[in-house]
Amino acid sequence: MISIIFMFLFFGYTCGNFLNNTLQYAECLSHCYDQYCPEICNGTTHQGPAMFEAELHCRDTDLLSLHHSDGIFIIQQSTSNITWSKPRVVQGIMSIFSGLKPGQFYRYRVKRVENNSVSKPELTGWFQTIKNDEKPEGIREINVQDIVPISDDIHHLQAQVTFEPGQDLSCYYDVLNWSEKQGLSIGHVNATQYFKFQLNKLDYYCNNTITILATNKGTKEKSNNVSMIIKTPSCLESHKSLIICAPNKVSGLRVKKLQQFDDNIKFQVSWDKPKFLPDNYTVLIEPFDHSKKQITINLSGNLTEFFYYLDEIGLPHVISIVAESHGGISQPISIMNTIKFEKRKQTIINDILIILSSFGMVILAGVIYIYYKNKKTTIKNQYNYCSNINDKVNLAEIYEKSKIIESDIKMEIDPLLSKDEFEIHPVQLRIGKILGSGVSGIVRLGSLEVNNNDWIQVAVKMLQDGPSEDDVKNFKQEILIMKSAGIHRNIVSMIGCCTTSIKPMLIVEYCSQGDLQTYLRNIWNNLLNDANNRKIQIENIKLCHEKNSDIISSMSLGSEQTVAISNQLYDLQQGMLNTKEEISASDLLSFAHQVAIGMEFLSMNRIVHRDLAARNVLVCSDKTVKISDFGLSRDVYQENIYRKQGNGKLPIKWMAIEALTHQIYTTKSDVWSYGILLWEIVTLGCSPYPDISTSIVLELLKEGYRMPRPQNCGIELYEIMRSCWNTRPRCRPTFTKLKQDMDKLLETVSQNDYLNLCNLQQERDDSITDSE
Predict the structure, then answer these.
(1) Dist CA 56 CA 125 (whole Å)
(2) Gap between the Cα atoms of 215 and 236, Å rounded
(3) Residue 666: closest CA among 634, 631, 630
(4) 85 alpha carbon, distance to own chain's centre
(5) In 3D, which of 659, 771, 763, 764 has the Cα closest to residue 705?
(6) DSSP string of 410-453?
(7) By C-alpha distance, which of 630, 623, 510 is closest to 568?
(8) Are 681 and 515 in contact (CB under 8 A)?
(9) What are phi and psi of 617, to 5 degrees?
(10) pLDDT-derived band of residue 27, with 50, 70 and 90 as boundaries?
């Protein structure tokens, strides 16, 4: 009894020293409850109820987080009303209890410490932890509060994101953030305090897809995905300064014919006045087929129009414009102007004669046709757009549609495909030989009349006989994406379309040298022939190409699910077989450089290609290369992530890891494919991963395998390839960076051995051996 009284006096004196510090006072009392006689502490002055007002904030298998009123409290925990844990002191509005058992109920006894006194004890309700076998519920809502510039980083933004948890109130979450420029990143959120987090390093004018999943730490179970697209503002919207930011892309670009003279035409080009005036504009005017030197015009930033004269060249020309300021250069925008000359008086008589002659020829053709019709089998469902056929095309192949009625193939009226500047009247076209065909489409060589009797060669794409609803829908989508992509020197640009005829057509640029894969392989064949003429022993190389030919054959047959698909616009292999093309290391680097430029343009327009490969790059006569079949891709402005549907064949050996494992296609997966395309260029069209089955490519990539450096490839160029094959998408370079890297190699190609063609035969054989 004497010892108890002594302890009472001692702790009364000690705690009395903390009367001016409530928190220390509460700590002292907690020790009193914990180690000595509770009856002594119960003798402390009580002042009203505790007013704890606890609510469950979140929970896990071994954790409870409670939200309560603000203050300093002494808390004890229990799984029953009999035994209580050691007291602890908490301050604030949150209390977190860890080390708990799954699925167990807990309650708390609380006393508030305030004004040097302790309240009466208060019991909370029962709170249960998550069971081990319980799957978390998905969150209910995502909200973005603020998207603001980072104070010490003018190149990026940050955003505050809050979310509403599911009814089970999980504490832990995985956050996936996919952006067009940085790729995919994964983070983790501990929500024991707040259901919010901050996104940093966001790019300007970029879509970010935020996906949040609740997780169970005990069983590693995850909830269903809940996603939201966050569109960040542009740099100008954030900073409102052209000193920091590049101008926005010029909007409302239009061209108008003003006056026609004997030898030229006067045009007016105008655009919308921007909110922030740039320092200046730069305009490029160039014939569509690059037959003449481009015209460069520099204009003051306060102008919104200019006038120019153009000689009667009889070809469309492209007008491109960029805005410039101290903060940078805007994205380019282009418009195509088709020259239309008015008929002059002196040509009226000639026109009348031509009309009369044409009329006579039509009558004669009608007589012949009726005779032919009566004598031969009837040809049904003629297409009204075939006004002339060149190169002895098989007429039955074009005209005979006995199993199809017009209503089955005519494109329905679609408000998105209404008439616009791209619409071409069918009589302006002459359809020629087949350039290539696929499962649903066929491409023919054509001629397009752009002025009176002035014709340019084009490629005309149309649907195969009896197209399905999906074929028609995809063809519409292709036309829309081709329209939205605009015009660029290194993409196969759209010239026009016919959507009002019985069978729709897409008219695009014609590239006379065919696809890059065939182009390179024919050059390789020429090298082999030259070597044979010089009686060089190249049996090993022949063996390599025999293997490669087997791969090419399997690609053509398409007998397996996993072989690469060739969805190339067209293929001129027959026309290329007998050509002997001179090639240099500079030419090959130039091809790679041009593809990077074209892909940069597509990525800036939020278009993911999904099948970038040498077979989908076309070559012009002046060695300009153009990316094709991006119209088969998807605009990711709204979708951001394209997930392939169905069980279609995939170009396995050109695909990034994340595309193979999760069917996620982004600009960063296009960068991976660009690295494979570089390898194709270096090896003059050899198939990637030679002698490796497509069925094991993914496992090898997961284990870290990458194709070795071809011996004729310099280290610098190979490092660029390897950077494209980084496992983490956000660590791969952008196409802007790739363009810059290839530009640097081209500048010094004469001084450095980036690509050696002299010993390519032996080196190519060695590279195949290494890859085995």
Answers:
(1) 10
(2) 39
(3) 634
(4) 56
(5) 771
(6) SPPP-GGG---TTB--GGGEEEEEEEEE-SSEEEEEEEEEEETT
(7) 630
(8) no
(9) -120, 130
(10) low
Helix axes 735-747, 667-682, angle to 10 degrees: 30
Q: What is the rounded CA–CA span in Å between residue 516 and residue 514?
A: 7
Our answer to whether residue 611 is catalytic in this structure is yes
Highest mean pLDDT: which range of 115-124, 304-313, 380-389: 115-124
Q: For residue 502, what are the CA distances in angstroms to 29, 49, 326, 482, 511?
A: 90, 84, 52, 21, 27
Report yes or no: 184 and 176 within 8 Å, Cβ to Cβ.
yes
**H/E/C letters for each residue in 87-136?**
CEEEECCEEEEECCCCCCEEEEEEEEEECCEECCCEECCCEECCCCCCCC
* C-alpha to C-alpha distance for 432 and 455, rounded to whole angstroms: 13
Lowest mean pLDDT among 75-89, 142-156, 335-349: 335-349
Q: What's the pLDDT at 503?
A: 75
Tokens describing residue 94: 């949150």
299-300-304-310 Cα dihedral, nearest 10 degrees: -20
Which residue in 60, 515, 571, 611 is the catalytic one?
611
Interior CA angle at 76 toward 74 and 81, to 5°? 140
Residues 216 and 62: beta-carbon distance below 8 Å:
no
Angle, CA 653 vertex, CA 650 and CA 655 arms, to 5°: 65
d(CA 199, CA 145): 11
Cα–Cα distance, 696 to 687 (Å, whole number): 16
Contact between 244 and 235 (Cβ < 8 Å): yes
Query: What is the side-by-side strand order in the sheet with 172-179?
Result: 183-190, 172-179, 207-215, 226-231
Structure tokens at 498: 């016919």
Distance CA 246, CA 393 (A): 52
How many angstroms separate the CA atoms of 212 and 174, rounded?
6
Looking at residue 205, its amino acid is Y
What residue has token string 């003629």? 382
Q: What's the CA gap between 510 and 456, in Å, rounded?
A: 9
Backbone φ and ψ for 76, nearest 5 degrees, come out as: -125, 145
- According to DSSP, the β-strands at 494-498 and 505-509 are antiparallel
Closest to 283 in 3D by CA, of 250, 319, 335, 328:
319
Q: Got the DSSP string for 406-421?
A: HHHHSPPP-GGG---T
Q: What are the tens digits of pLDDT across the range 527-556?
A: 777 666 654 444 444 444 454 444 333 333
Paired strand residues for 295? 285
- Altogether, the residues listed in the chain come to a count of 772
Q: Which bin fits 392, alpha (ψ -120 to 50), beta or left (φ > 0)?
A: left
Q: Which amino acid is at 126?
A: W
For residues 480 and 694, give the distance between their C-alpha atoms in angstroms, rounded to a whole number. Answer: 33
Q: Directed axis angle between helix 667-682 and helix 585-604, to 10°?
A: 170
- Both tokens of residue 91? 């301050």
Q: Taking CA 183 as the corner, what is the angle to CA 177 and CA 185, rounded to the nearest 5 degrees?
A: 40
User: Which single residue is written with the structure tokens 């036309």?
Assistant: 479
In 464-584, alpha helices (H)? 469-485, 516-533, 539-557, 573-576
Question: Which residue from 74, 73, 54 is spatially nearest to 64, judged by alpha carbons?
Answer: 54
Lookup result for tokens 């939201």: 228
Is residue 640 over pLDDT 70? no
| 3-state SS class at 288 | coil
Asked if 208 and 761 touch (Cβ cutoff 8 Å), the reply is no
CA distance 315 to 454: 8
If DSSP codes are grouped into helix, strand and coil, which group holds residue 719? helix
Which among 642, 575, 653 is positioned nearest to 613, based on CA atoms? 653
Which token pair is 532? Answer: 């044979």
| CA 462 – CA 448 distance, rounded (Å) | 15
262-313: pLDDT as tens digits? 667 888 899 999 999 999 999 988 876 666 777 888 999 999 999 888 765 5
CA distances from 30 to 34, 450, 737 (A): 6, 92, 62
